[in-house]
Records
---
Amino acid sequence: MEKRGFTFRNGFLYCEDVRVKDIQTDLSTNGIVPSSPCFVYSKEKIVSNISAYQTALKMLNISTLLNFSMKANHTPAILQIVRSMGCSVTLVSGMELKMALKLGFDPRLTVFNGNGKQDWERLLAIEEGCLINVDSPFDLMQTMRMCQKLRKNSNVLLRINPDIDPQVHPFISTGLANSKFGINTEDLEECVTLLEKCSQITLVGLHCHLGSTIHNVSVFRLCTMKLLSLKSELKTRGFNNIKYINIGGGLGINYKQLAERTSPARSSCTMSLEDGYTQTTVQGNNARQLNVTERVSQNDLDYNSGCSELMHDDLKVPTPGGLVECIQSALVDSEVTLILEPGRSLVGNTAILATTVLGTKGNQTKRFIVIDGAMTEVPRPSLYGAYHHIELSEPTDIVQVDKTTNRSSLNDPHRQVYDVVGPVCESTDFLGKERLLPEPHEGCGLAIFDVGAYCSSMSSNYNLRLRPCEVMVDGSTWHIIRRPDTFADLFEPYEGHWQ
Ligand code: PLP
């Protein structure tokens, strides 16, 4: 069977059919500076994630639009795949709109979102005929003024704040009444009254985005019902052009799919050089008993197969099919076009950050693996304590010798509990805490998993670090899709202004 995405083979991490370590070596040999860290994407994974949504949406028998949320990843080569598969994009800034135009997206199918739009952004969105998501009465008034000034009409959606709890981390929850996003019940009447008076603006849709990393898909059903009921209400007030019901993005992915492989609970197992893990008792509330008898198969578990025997019960992975099934019976109005605008669930699991171990340090109570990747490339752990799976991407060279038998084996690496940290001068610069990992040699490859969403697009030059190289793997070939920053890129904005 063809292997997809990321797999371990003989202790080496592969992206599709390419060994991750080989990519790092080749980049270095070809003079790419820095060659590490580096984002590595699987093209096939991106394509299959998009296909999964498209297949699921076909079940609905109504017209649909799948809009990739560009904020999750704005690397052009990825957007090209999105466009080639017939998707549009949801945008949150004028520069994202410029990127969409540059890459040939039809602006009339893009949703231009934002709770605070600047004049130049609004002007561009109106000129290009984007679907404009209105977030507040002031946003609507500014849009009306701009339409008058440009003598242009505009199609808008109202972004509703439905006061629905998406049950996610508060920092990425947007659908509750206390959120800065969306129009609350009191402001809705003001917006409707303004729209009644404005001939240049047509209300064509209703929008709602509840938050991100949603696992309980029933909240999408609630949201669909609220928007449809509002649509009927507005029809009685004469708004007959509401065609789009946009329920946003937000579907979660299973970041902890392989968490058990590096869980410190496993350190209670006694390891024998002969048998690997011989003791099967594992501590921890939710952890199931491990019954790991073969070291090699343990290391080579297919990353995509879900390794169900190692998963926690509470980690049910939401799927596009599950989402569509859940909203299907609520979509009684066949006149509407449903818009979904996922970001994370289309690209989150399509990339790793390939990093290199700089060294290890610490004592018996606390040990660290220091790598060349950092919060500047993978900011989610430092922003809201998010979990990313971490593993060595090649076997460690450090040989463990058993003092009693005097035997050694590379297949039996010495595992310890480490915090994996980067070189950025901040205590929040950690990629993972308390991970049970083999002791790595200096220069060993180490991969941070599931970094396809909100990593490259949120990466920064903090500490004057260079944003890294990105490569796309397609079967057994790969190519660079973004060169790393250079010092010239960093200095250029100051050029002529510093002396
Ligand atoms: N739509 C809007 C309006 C958003 O703000 C976001 C992200 O916050 C998304 C869609 C995409 O969300 P996700 O990446 O969780 O699917």
---
Amino acid sequence: MSALSFEPPRGMRDFYPEDMAWRDRVFSAFREAGDLFGFERYDSCPVESYELLARKAGEEVGEQIYHFLDKSDRHLALRAEMTPTLARMVAQRQKELRFPLKWTAIAQCFRYERSTKGRKREHFQWNMDIIGEESVLAEVEVVGAAVWALERMGLRRGDFKVRVSSRRFLGELLERSGIDASRHAQVFLALDKRGKMPDSEIAAMLRDGGLTEEETAKAFEIMETKDFSASPELSEFFALASSAGFADALVFDISVIRGLSYYTGIVFECFDTAGEYRAIFGGGRYDNLLTSIGGEPTCAVGLGFGDVVVTELLKSRLGADAAGGAPRGTAVGFMTAAERPAAIALASSLRSRGERVDLALKPQKPKKFFSRAAETRAAKAVFIGPDDTAAGKARVKDLATRGEEEIELQ
Ligand code: HAM
């Protein structure tokens, strides 16, 4: 048998402690934002029935699902996103739940995509959804929470922009050009590919979707729209975001359509201003998803915010080592086995006061102890030698200021 590779399967990720420090920083901002904006946490099983997740051909996510037959021939799938699962959970308890729901989750999602910068085959996705609210303030709240989280992580307003549009508005513009609503789903899917494939291929997709040459030209013309004042929902969205204090993080962009077919109204996607990365987060209004899986009609708004792109962006803006935060806790070490009981007793007493202690596991030379304490980013260090136990006292060294403080040994 050949040796096993030490690499994880392609597109999957391991989290070594330095990666975990970034993940903690990102997740903390997600959780704090959820709390601050008054959302309740939920979670679900990561495996779903394939039927719930699979959608119409043409949608990328539908084609990227990891699916399998279990030992009883059930056709199952790993969740590629949280939204169908959320719809299922809401539908199951629709009679008992009190709407509007404001629910948040951090869910590991799996997509068999080409692994590129910012896209993996497995990622953690923060979801913020408001179910059962028609007011555009729902959109404003979820986007506001995501903007807050980005700043909490350490990015500045100028580092990112949320591009906002509305499928309803785009639909109205298409309709006014004689492209009727029955063809919009196809048109949206084609136009969403702009920038990702040549316009000639998109034109071919539009013609395949039943558009005439003239309608195709009109569809491209509509994509140059810069004025959204004819859309009441977009006007209200921008006005309310201004009251909330983050309108400067937004920009109207008709080309934001989103690849998922369930969106019905406002849609948005956040990108880094330098244009180096793929989307940081995306979402929108999806008023028909519950009915499409057999639930009662309920309007909904939400977003998905992955951990991959934002972590890469944070590393590039703040430095790859910046995740760990300030040094913390106390390292406790000892010279010989004779000082070990005193070191253990000191560690226990510090821990009982809630202090984080990294206790050395064996006797060490002071030089080695202090260099490890610096490497592990301890804030303070206490090294106990025979003289200290004899005196019944040791010195706590502040590793930043080099100041010392005496402490009693037991
Ligand atoms: P999505 O645009 O497919 O939307 O994904 C949302 C975010 O998840 C992306 O902007 C990106 O941050 C992250 N993401 C997606 N795929 C990958 C990947 N392969 N690797 C790394 N990150 C990824 C949705 O999933 C919708 N369900 C969001 C939503 C929630 N809409 C309403 N509620």
---
Amino acid sequence: MLARRTGYFVESVIRDMTRLSLKHNAINLAQGFPDFPAPLTLKQAAAAAIMGDYNQYSITWGAKDLRDEISQKAREYNHIEADPESEITMTCGSTEAMMASMLALINEGDEAIIFEPFYENYGPDAAVSGAVPRFVPLNDDNSIDEDALESAFNRKTRVIILNTPNNPCGKVFTKGELKMIADLCVDNDVIAVTDEIYEYILYDNRKHISIASLDDMKDRTITISGFSKTYSVTGWRIGYALAEKNLTSAIRKVHDFLTVGAPAPLQHACVTALRYPGSYYKELASMYDEKRKFLHSALIKAGFKCNMPEGAYYILADIPEGVNMDDMEFAKHMVSEIGVAAVPGSSFYKSEAGKHKLRFTFSKKDETLMEAAERLEKLRI
Ligand code: PLP
């Protein structure tokens, strides 16, 4: 006697692979969390906040000092004006921001356009909120199939979910692509819900562009981000949504009754994070750039085919030729026989395309990646 909606999705395969990895003592390149410490001053700020008695509920939509800092960051980095009093909601990770946004926007049967490959949460986000997902596959080179996108928009379309930089394929949407999406949103009266959690992890001098900063998009975009990836604190569960005030008021209502609020002392500590100098973000991106190149070359040596990601910290790789296993079988084989955990590609695709792929993260210490590379060599024998 369970709700039908729970039948439309399975438990996270990514987190499942983490459990399997622990069981086999494998190197976990499945789940995208750093195995290195968070910045010391951030940990100190969190400890100080707890000792300083920031231990009770904060304002449900977020601590004022943090919203003020985010408003400034949004203006300077994203070129979005967001009033801290009425247009910013702090949430339990960007995961909650996405779910609360969908619950705030979707009526049963509304359609949500989702690019494929997609972050695995978007399917369940659609199912729980009652949206019918409409998947639009990216081309093989990760460019947008404009005709397919245009024909996905119809009277029932309520939202388009974007993710730039993208997990799993590392695509960074260009200004031209975002303009094209923006025009379709305006013409069809659709809201863009954009997950920008990897907004500081870009390579080869690429620039992050928020669709909300484009003409006519500020009032029809929900911009989601958080602290997990930029500050290596995935366990803190601090994220946020920026949106025009009517949208924000609906998001805040949902958020209030889902979680009451994000962790108060950690919100307080996040103010410290937002005051880091520009060099912090440069170093973060260049650290991941080195790791990206290292893992890419290890995967190529082991027989995988893969492109260099443009942003985020994942590589989506084609299973080596000659392997007669699908993604799920091969991922299990890799964990138990090779000792490296990756995520089966089908977690990111509705179509069959994912069955020939695995996703690896490089958000790990150099030693971890080196050990993984050594183990991957076994695949060549
Ligand atoms: N969005 C994307 C695209 C992700 O890859 C992840 C985590 O891997 C999340 C959201 C989750 O972010 P948070 O920790 O802020 O909930």
---
Amino acid sequence: MTEIPKITLHSGKDQSPKRFHPWIFSGAVKKAPENIKNGDVVEVYSSKDEYLGTGHYQKGSIMIRLFSFEKIVPDASFWKSKIQHAFNYRKAIRLTNDANTNVYRLVYGEGDGLPGLVVDYYNGTAVIQAHSIGMYRERFQIADVLKEIYGEQLKAIYDKSKESLGVSINKLSTENGENAEVQNSYLYGSGGEKQVIENGHKLHIDWEEGQKTGFFIDQRENRSLVAQYASGKKVLDCFCYAGGFSVYALKAGAIEVHSVDSSKGAIKLTDANVALNFGQDTRQTSFLADAFDYLSNNPSKYDMMIIDPPAFAKHRDARHQAVTGYKRLNALAIKGIKPGGIIFTFSCSQVVDKYLFHGAITAAAIEAGRNVRILEYLSQPADHPISIYHPEGEYLKGMILYIE
Ligand code: SAH
């Protein structure tokens, strides 16, 4: 067996891996072998030559993503045990064998001790998304493990890493002497059933053409909460994408649902999902529009609003602008909703934490000049677990507001 390349950290930089934090920043690295390549598996040692962990190397601010804090050989049986743990956890939270839900996240990166890897399960199809070159290289081993764990139940595996690896991948792989361009493709099977059920709601999911891995699985529990409030309400589902919130609201007895998104594909998907559950339902209408414009032009119509925008900030330097965006958007919603109205508002920007988001909503309430109560704080569901050692894994937060 070839030896695993060794990385040595500067003195004092061993505290973070000793506390099981999976990221080693470039500034902590004292010594790395000269021939090290992006995506290589490396072992990390302290300045006193103590073993700290094993992970994937990739040039950049986060230089090593640790997937083990015990000395291991990253072979098929290692990946099997990691992914089996992730599966067992989903089983424990009752997602793997639920007659009413056959869509869930099987692997959520650092939250599952697998930094750089996301795997979503869609009714017999696994969609893999690598966020690091190292995990991208492991994709065939991971596909084999998925087949082993699911057996007959798994009909297809789709690799959708092109978007998540970003534009830099082709440059990086050239540096590695690999010229292959990253393309999304099936690693196993082809196609598969593109319809899932979530809490008994039917949903058409398109992992090939859709955003992210195809669906925003992370809002499952918040969609159920929307259902609890929607009966008899006129509801606005703003940034509707696949129309999940709209479908839940209709099923729960909303009297009218308007779904707004600026993407044609999203509107098509929403219409398809409404039709799939209710046929021609005259209670629902979709609007292809910018949400800010729509909210400005349509005040005082709704008893309930869902505001679920895309991440306004993907990086720290965009944080201020993002907070301004959340404030402006929520001020429009709070100003516009009917007295006694309910707003579900969300942020999925990892760099805007719950305190900052809370601040933006407070500022929006002050600007709107209305009395606002907080009914509940919302978060991401348990199939998007946050490791206690990696608080950065928390990204989705929301609030239910009552507006007088
Ligand atoms: N609520 C959805 C997920 C929303 S994702 C669900 O539960 O599935 C964010 C959506 O916002 C995307 O569909 C994107 O097309 C849309 N979007 C982005 N910018 C927008 C804008 N300015 N106005 C309206 N929609 C926008």
